[in-house]
Each structure stands twice: as structure tokens, then as C-alpha cells.
Amino acid sequence: MFDGDTFRATGHALIDLLADYLDKNLQGKGDVLDWQAPQEAIRHWQQPMPYQPTLTPAGLIAALQDEVLAGTLHIHHPRNMGHQVAPPLPVAALCDLVAALTNQAMAVYETGPSATMIERQVIRWLGELVGWQDTEGVLTSGGAQANLTALLAARQVQARKTDPDWDAWHQGLGRGKPLCILVSEHAHYSVSRAAGIMGLGTEAVIKVATDAAGRMQMSALEAAWQQATEQGITVFAVAANAGCTPTGSIDPLQEIGRFCRERNIWFHVDGAHGASALLSAHHRPALDGIALADSVVWDGHKLLYMPATVSAVLFREPQHSYAAFAQQASYLFQGDSHAEEAYNTSYRTLECTKRMMGLKLWAAFSLYGAERLGQLVDTVFASARAFADKLRTQPDFELLMSPETNILCFRHLAPGLSPSTLNAHQAALRLHLVRSGQFHLTQVELHGTIWLRTSIMNPMTGPSDLDALIAALRDAASRHQH
Predict the structure, then answer these.
(1) Domain range annotation of the chain
(2) In what order do the strands lie in the sheet with 407-412?
(3) What top-level class would CATH report for the domain 105-356?
(4) Is the peptide bond preceding residue 309 cis, with omega within 30 degrees of 0?
(5) Does the model's pTM come out above 0.90?
(6) 259 phi, psi to nearest 5 deg
(7) Rounded Cα–Cα distance for residues 132 and 127 (Å)
């Protein structure tokens, strides 16, 4: 089971299989998805426990090809335009293999020495792109955990500001005044989930109205803060979007940052999707003001083109990176000096056993450079704008707004349909295209209206794919109407 020669032979066969799979998908061959209803698919996965071997190494490769890869959503296909999931750089996937085999737990420095140093290097690089020096932070398993970590730190730091004797981590929430978070109406659900986990309650997340471009309105932010203050509730954080999930819109970070500075409020930026615009000389100005943040979340598995999951939570003030979790575990933390203890990652993350996440980011930056990675961002942003330009010329399509990133919302207009029927029409079109395997796209409901939504993540998605999507939607509409 641990034989190196078997590993080598099986690994070579696996790499050949995956390379062929990658090439086929990048060339747009075949469907995006071989749809099978889950009630049917589950029947195949009801085999009894194999107490004795049922596969040889060669049989495993065949099963991976015929049963696993064939049943996946083909992320690298240029007509996969659904969720904000990267078609990962192949070298990053190879680095994940290294991380898996070496299995560095990373709870403390001695369980992952090189992994710890690589992660700290990557955190400093990302902080430099934000505009900070001496950045501290941690890589986590996804943006939801990263948002939770940042908001836990915010609660601890801000509670101390309201009452120097209030240790929210140890004493809980009962000591001080009620706390709340102000967020865009397009905030990711993970912020409300974090509030529930933290014991604040989801009602402590107060949504602030946005303008026609999906950006938080400063007048609405001011009004929400004023109302909370009058009710005796402490606004301990404002969470802004740098590329919100529904529309990709970027909040006015400079103005929100100043607002928070003036009122001594923690400024958090959820840049899970859009922070990668910092890599682009052309698009970086859209994030002006992000350096004013106290914390920033940045997903590598979105526009940094990493395999899922790797998310960075970054802190402007290094000491704040220790504020989220303020507890002791003598079986882990036994260093003789504070300087040595600082290298124990578990002080700063929910996870104890944590894989070597930083390796793939380090490799990508080292192999390609930030500027070349930024070209990938430029390409997909440009594709979204080109698609918007195409749709503007089509009388049977309507745009929600001009795209600010690589996310575009639109709908197909069918004559004679009521607003509610038009909503059902969009949902039916999406379902048809996904189940036919032609395209993968999503939908979003905003203020009672359903919009079709594309996230153009693949730099290989070209004009012909966008034209084909328009044609496929029209064809589906014709079938649906008849």
C-alpha cells in the first residue's frame, strides 16, 4: 500500500489521464456537464462495503475516467460560466498533490516547518498587494471561514474599545451593549452565518441599501449607523464587498473606509472574489480605499486560479491576527518565547489540522509573477464587458447593469409574459441549458426579479462561446414557448 514503484506507475497513468482531460475541456470538446438527476445517479453509488479489493491500480484509473471524471462539471470548459469557481492552474493542482502526500498538519511550527514559512510568505505578498507592510494573517479553508475569523477578531478588538475590561472571547456577549454589523444588501450569506455562530444572532447583521450599480449607498450607511446608535446598539464592524456574489459590484471602499475611521468602527472588506483585481494595473483603481480596511478576505480559488479551497484573511495591524481566538492548549503551544510561539498557526485559525495551502499560491506567483496572473483577470473582465456589449444590441435581452468585474446579470425578454411568468421563463431557460450540457450558468433573484447570471472565470471563453450562449437561449426560449 505504500510502495513507491506502484505510486510512480499509478501516478504517471493518472497524470496522463488528467492531461488528456484538461486538453479536451480547454478545447471545448463535448458537453459542459453530462446531466443525471441525483435520484438516478445515487443508484450507482450503493455498492456494499468492499472488505476485499475490488480494483487493481489500472482498474482505479479506468474508474476515475469512466465514473468520476465523466460525471463532473467540467470546470475548464469555456462554456462553463456558472459559479465563481476557478478553472485551476494545472501546476497548482500538482502542488496540492505535494501537500496531500507530505500531509503537514500545520497546527504548530514543528508539524509543518516549510508549510508555515511558505504561508507566511504568501500572506506578506497578498498584504503588499493590498497596500500594507508587515501583514499578518492566515490561510483558511474557504471564504466563509475567513469572514468568520475576521469578524471574531473585530468583535474582540472593538469590545475592548467600548470597555477595556470586556474580553468577548472569554466572557461572551453579556457584559457589553448589543453589537451589530452593517453590510451591503448583497453581502455574502457567510457574514450572517458568522453572526449566528458568534452568538450575535443573524438579526445583528443589518443590510444597507445599494444603488443601481449594486454599490452600498453612503447615505443609507449613515442612516443605518445613526439608527443603531440611537437604539443603544454598538456598530462594531462594517463589511463591504469588493466583488459581491450576485452582481460582482464593488462598494465605495474609500468612502466607507473614511466613514469607519471617523467613527472608530472596524472596516472589513470581503474581497473573496474581487480582491484579485489588485493584480491588474487597469482594474486596481476600482479597489481604491481597500488599504483603509482593518481586515480583508481574499479567495485563491476564485480569480487567483487555485484549486479549492484556499482563502486568506489578512489584517492591517499584525497584533489583530491573534484576536480571533484567545485560548490556550498546552499540548500544542509549548514554546519558551513569544517570538517562537508566533509561528504556531493554530493561534490564529479555527482549524488545528490544516493542510499546506500556501504552496500552490507560492508556486503560481513564483512561476508566473503577479503581472501575468493579473492578465488572466484582465481577460475575463474584458470578456464580461464584451458580452454586455453584445447583449445591449439584442432587443430580446436586458442587462441588469454594466459589469464591474467578470459577473454579468441579464435576462431574456419574451413578448406577452407577465413579470412573474418572465421570472419562471428565466429559470426554465437556465434549467434547459444546464441539463442539456450545453452551458453552465446560474440565476439570481434581486428585488423580486430573476436574472440569468454568468461568471466568466475561464480565460479561454471567447466571442464564439458568448454568441453560442445567446443562440442557445433563444433556441431554448422558442422550445419553451411552444
Answers:
(1) 21-47+64-88+370-482, 105-356
(2) 397-399, 407-412, 449-455, 442-446
(3) alpha beta
(4) yes
(5) yes
(6) -55, -45
(7) 5
Mean pLDDT, the chain, integer: 95
- Count other Cβ atoms within 10 Å, centred on residue 194: 25
Question: What mean pLDDT comes out for the span 264-288?
Answer: 98
Number of residues written out for the chain? 482
18 in Cβ contact with 65 (< 8 Å): no
Of the candidates 438, 411, 407, the residue with the CA atom closest to the CA atom of residue 423: 411
Cell for 121?
510568505
Is a pLDDT exceeding 50 seen at residue 399? yes
| Residue 343: Cβ within 10 Å count | 15
Q: Select from 401, 451, 444, 393 the least CA-distant residue to 422.
A: 451
CATH architecture of 21-47+64-88+370-482: Alpha-Beta Complex (3.90)
User: In angstroms, rounded to a whole number, what is the distance separating the alpha carbons of residues 398 and 420?
Assistant: 16
How far apart CA 419 and CA 200 sit, in angstroms, is 37
Closest to 298 (Cα-Cα) out of 321, 315, 286, 281:
315
Phi first, then psi: give them for residue 371, nearest 5 degrees: -65, -40
At residue 171, the 3 state secondary structure works out as helix
